[in-house]
Fold these 2 entries.
Entry 1:
Amino acid sequence: MDSSSAAILGAFIGGTAIVGSYVILESYKRYRDRQGTASAFAGEIAAELRMGEARKYVENFTTIAAQLEQGDERPFPAIVSGEHRGPEPALRPLRDRIGMLPGDLPERVAQFHLYLGAIRTDLLRLAEGEFRGRPADAAILIREDLHLWVNDTVPLGRQLVTDLRALVRRRWFGLF
């Protein structure tokens, strides 16, 4: 092999090593970003579910709905503020990163947050007095939201927390 061929081969090998190193580094950075995003969503969803248990949402809203059905129309407490329409404000920046989650996780995380946002919006509507003078309609709304919470939001959230935590623990090419 002459010196020019050796130089070309050396440049090719060196260039390939640089490109390969960049690809490996970029893969690792994406892996870590995916882990961080999954961890943040898992923590937020787990906290939402835990707060629902600790604050006894189901029991309390069942009682409120029963009172409204009996015509007892007390002012509805302002449980959430207007800034809570939609996803948790602290995690809104993560919406741009949801697509880096694998498989159907982006769809299911979005679904969870849309359910939660719809329930929060209904709580705001109740607190703002939209159903004043219509206690039966308010009771129907609360019962619908309870159904959505118990039958859809909580089971979806629990499975998401499990799946997101598993993603966080997943190793990068078996190395880390």
Entry 2:
Amino acid sequence: MKSFLCRAFGLYPGEDKNVWRFVLLALLAAFGSSIAEILSISLFVEKVGPASLPFAFMITACILIGASALFLYFLRRTAPSRILSKVLSIAAAAYPIFALILISCSPGNWFWYLLQIVTYSFVAALIASYWTFLDEYHDLQDAKRVYGIYNASFFVGYILSGSLINLTFDKIGPIPLFMLVGLLMVPAIYQIGSINRRIRPVEDDATEGLLVGGKKGVLHLLRLFVSSPYTIFLVSTSLLVQLMRTTTEVSCMETFG
């Protein structure tokens, strides 16, 4: 069975254990972040109303601009594994705190805005740092074979979170689910440490030359961006997809509201 699965997924002999470690990390991260994302927007629509979603998205977008700048700053000065660990650690502390606030009082609209903004920022930071972390351990040829598996693992995490919320939300409410989000981050952080101990990073001279500190700073990165038609096309497509997603989500939530 193991040999069949390795051939089906295009894995080399002995590679399955390392791939499983990254798959487990993706499952844990996607499972927890998706629970948080579904609950945050659902509770926002219920408590505040869908008409306020565009304003919340605007605040989130402004925060993400600053977060992206910080991400690039730290990426030039520390390992991607540490960045990902910090993102998961913040989530592991934040969501139990959110649950305790819900236990102790009935918060006002400020809480639901905060929950929505923090969750969307967390999901964006998680996706960016996870794929950067993957690049540290895979060369281009490996990525062509196994990145589809990791992407599918994220979707499995989304399926698990949606199923869990559908089956349990009416019975237990949001508080245990927020606690579960924080709990899921703990083994994910442990998994990062396990990967660091057991798998050797791949040397990447091109990435090293681009990201290490020095005179070539932000302006150099901007020049590289402007001079690359592929990068401009990729970013433009990403912006278009995000605009479609946000517009569709607001319209959908207005119907639910």
